[in-house]
Amino acid sequence: MGRVVHKYGGSSVADADGIKRVAQRIVATKKAGNDVVVVISAMGDTTDELMDLAQQVSPLPPPRELDMLLTSGERISAALLAMAIANLGYEARSFTGSQAGVITTSAHGNARIIDITPGRIEESLGEGHIAIVAGFQGVAQDTKDITTMGRGASDTTAVALAAALEADYCEIYTDVDGIFTADPRIVPAAQQIPKISYEEMLEMAACGAKVLHLRCVEYARRYNVPVHVRSSFSQKEGTWVVDAKELDQTMEQAIISGVVQDTKEAKITVVGVPDKPGEAARIFETVAGADTNIDMIVQNVSAVATNRTDISFTLPRADGARAMSALARMKDEVGYEQLLYDDQIGKVSVVGVGMRSHPGVSAKFFSALADAGVNIEMISTSEIRISVVVDENLVNAAVTAAHTAFDLDDEHTQAVVYGGTGR
Amino acid sequence: MGRVVHKYGGSSVADADGIKRVAQRIVATKKAGNDVVVVISAMGDTTDELMDLAQQVSPLPPPRELDMLLTSGERISAALLAMAIANLGYEARSFTGSQAGVITTSAHGNARIIDITPGRIEESLGEGHIAIVAGFQGVAQDTKDITTMGRGASDTTAVALAAALEADYCEIYTDVDGIFTADPRIVPAAQQIPKISYEEMLEMAACGAKVLHLRCVEYARRYNVPVHVRSSFSQKEGTWVVDAKELDQTMEQAIISGVVQDTKEAKITVVGVPDKPGEAARIFETVAGADTNIDMIVQNVSAVATNRTDISFTLPRADGARAMSALARMKDEVGYEQLLYDDQIGKVSVVGVGMRSHPGVSAKFFSALADAGVNIEMISTSEIRISVVVDENLVNAAVTAAHTAFDLDDEHTQAVVYGGTGR
Questions:
Q1: Which helix (H) or strand (E) holds A79?
Q2: Which ipTM score applies to this complex?
Q3: How far is A30 from chain B (nearest CA, A)?
Q4: DSSP string over A307-366
Q5: Which of A32, A159, B216, B234 has the most CB within a 10 Å radius?
Q6: For residue A355, what pLDDT is reported?
Q7: Cβ distance A133 to A100 under 8 Å?
Q8: Which SUPFAM superfamilies match (chains A, B) (predicted)?
């Protein structure tokens, strides 16, 4: 008998009809002979409505109480889903994150999973029930308070539960068909990826892809849980995120799996830093102390004449002001000449395990960008990813150029779009 | 330092403004130097709205899941109230029934309190917090499932918590000013009772008074918790429900404390029951087996000629059909002649510890009814209560007559109503 974990987001259960549709899909999976565990988000806009209520009584709600309030949303949808399943003739039990054994840190609003001890879930499955777990929540290990877990939490919980329950795989149901070779809204010729490796998905998530959260993919990779990302509004196969070993070796390995962009970053340049040991360290300690996440770093070779160098780095725009303040405060101490801030940038990345075994990927990428008139401001690479920082207004052109250059365009779409037989 | 438990119902916290008003009252109590624990119901119509959602996904929701769903309502109001209190500068913590240590049976929708172990509440009070407990809910001792506790549950929880925490008293905030000598909608001259004993309140609750639930009063009596029933919309003193010893002995003890009516009962008469040993027992076993609550019983002396007797009893109208079916099925076995059903009845009761020491109360009561043209169908008494069953259409006349006969009318109101100086 198989064992499967499903996860459904708020848009899948926006109303009573949505709940009933999801119940039917779950029951079909159970009927096929599987143990089924479901992680569910709050219905539609419930979380926003509860936040709104909170704002009405207090402009600065205490974090512990905000978590007590918000977790009601998932509790409601979990109970309703269990009822809908019972109505179809199958037994279901709903569980809060706490009851499901989701143990977390006590950082309210952004708690991390410490462990999952799903004893009651195992018991429920053993009795033949379908288990429904309220997503987005757990219980703090030290205080025993209810916690909510920040962005991507329900996806991460679903994968973590799948790992703890030794499930065969985890299905993340969302409102897109799967992971695409590029954002279809930018590149109409983008194609759905049938299978992608954990490492590639990690890079794509880190570089701007929004469908699966980084934490979720990291958990899947660590515990080797196959993840199937698919649409809750159709029966189509989605994208499987699996161990690289599972990728089809017989087929010609595509060099690049996909192109992603991130338009939420800003670039800070510290101009004229004295070229002395420790200066760069002091700069990055300062920025880290301001609780920001630095992404790409570029340090130019120091100019011989001046013995000074420029250091540029990128970070989330939301952290920009904070980092600038922190750096401005230590101007005299470091002795740099100037601070520049640019939030009109975008980061474009090509990702693919194939680039390990294929030389010339950078060359092809930079060449395609040049042909499209896109200037490269910064470059950063990993074994399976190449990222460039470009002018924000040229991001879409850069993505499109790279997608075509690496033969990712759907020829059929190309023919339709351009009225020809493809390039 | 005093220790007080407050309970607020749904109408007191119908919206954000209601929550903020309640928060201010709680903070005023805390400021006066008390430990404060609050039991709170769901906001306004929340419970009904959740029931409605449940009905949309399933016409027969499983009881466990219904409890998981409905308890979200109290969780939301408890968290919001804690936020509102924090906004006034005082620390508050909200707790589910489970977290507060409310241990119950596993009868979903109608669970009973087995025990209260409020360790986390004590801890919270010890840290100077105001503790908010979600009402209407607990955790089942055996299954550890969340349970809801049926009618009057939040009042009972508040009193039970007050007992477990050894609080000085429990204040039940509601939408009436207190307990009255009669329903003011029937008797405009009804007066608010300043103090009443547990036994009298028990009788009044059992005989139709709706402000405090029977279970709540029984708990208060058993653990000697003074209960103050008052309005959440004013600062007026309400009615104190206390041990009979606390009643003011120096004042002339009113013979009757109040008149109550119950118009939700029906009368069943089993006509012509053979006067043999065991027949009556068989009848009541049958009715009890149909899971009904019998109230008053009257058995006529058997007619010498026929050796048959008529047995009448009253029960809640909701149980009427069930009892009639059960009795009809055993007609041959018992051998009675006929079954009569009458739901056009009402029960009127006069309650007062004073009747122990004053003879002639029955005579005065029956005489007042006769003068008002009200025929008595059945009579039932306890040490401190006399109840009569009358035609439902004459209930109001009976209540009014008894109220006046026992000098309970507010003379001022009487003067205003009748334009004279009172009777």
A1: helix A63-87
A2: 0.75
A3: 19
A4: TEEEEEEEEEHHHHHHHHHHHHHTHHHHT-SEEEEE--EEEEEEE-GGGGT-TTHHHHHH
A5: A159
A6: 85
A7: yes
A8: ACT-like, Carbamate kinase-like
Q: Closest approach of chain A CAs to the CA of B30, in angstroms?
A: 19
Rg, Å, chain B Cα set: 24
pLDDT for B415 beyond 60? no
The string of pLDDT tens digits covering residues B205-215 is 999 998 999 88
Question: Is B75 within 8 Å of A82 when comparing Cβ atoms?
Answer: no
Nearest CA in chain B to A62: B83
CA distance B20 to chain A (A): 7
**Which residues of B make CB contacts under 8 Å with A?**
16, 19-20, 23, 50, 53-54, 56-62, 64-66, 68-69, 71-72, 75-76, 78-84, 86-87, 92-94, 99, 144
Within 13 Å of residue B371, how many CA atoms lie on the same side as its CB?
A: 12
**A87, amino acid identity:** N
- Read off the pLDDT of residues A73-90 as tens digits, 9 standing for 90 and up: 999 999 999 999 999 999
Distance CA A39, CA A198 (A): 21
Q: Which of A55, A80, A129, A130 to mutate to test the interface with B (most CBs of B within 10 A)?
A: A80
Task: Answer whether B62 sits within 8 Å of A80, measured CB to CB.
Answer: no
Which residues of chain A neighbour B75 with C-beta distances below 8 Å? 68-69, 71-72, 75
Share of chain B above pLDDT 70, in %: 96
**Distance of residue A344 Cα from the nearest chain B Cα, in angstroms:** 40
Q: How many CB pairs (< 8 A) connect A and B?
A: 111
SS3 B247: coil
Report DSSP letters for A125-190, one per residue. HHTTPEEEEETTEEEETTT--EEE--TTHHHHHHHHHHHHTT-SEEEEEESSSS-BSS-TTT-TT-
Q: Which residues of A touch B71 (CB under 8 A)?
A: 75
User: For residue A269, is it left (φ>0), alpha (ψ between -120 and 50) or beta?
Assistant: beta
Q: Which residues contact B123 (CB under 8 A, 6 or more apart)?
A: none
The nearest alpha carbon in chain B to A17 belongs to B57
| Cα B406 from chain centroid (whole Å) | 24
* DSSP for A203-271, written as a single string: HHHHTT--SS-HHHHHHHHHHT--EEEEETTS----EEEE-GGGS-SSSPPPS--EEEEE-SEEEEEEE
Q: Which amino acid is at A240?
A: W
For position B413, what pLDDT does the model report? 60
Nearest-Cα residue of chain A relative to residue B90: A62
What's the pLDDT at B244? 87
Chain A nearest CA to B66, separation (Å): 7
- Please determine, for residue A422, whether its predicted confidence score (pLDDT) is greater than 70: no
For the stretch B71-111, pLDDT in tens is 999 999 999 999 999 999 999 999 999 999 999 999 999 99
A54 interaction partners in chain B (CB closer than 8 Å): 79-80, 83
Q: How close, in Å, is residue A90 to chain B by CA atoms?
A: 11
Which residue, B9, B73, B84, B72, is CA-closest to B40?
B9
Using a CB-CB cut-off of 8 Å, the residues of chain B touching A89 are: none
Query: Residue A244 — very low, low, confident or very high, per pLDDT cuts 50/70/90?
Result: confident
Residue B423 has pLDDT above 50, yes or no: no
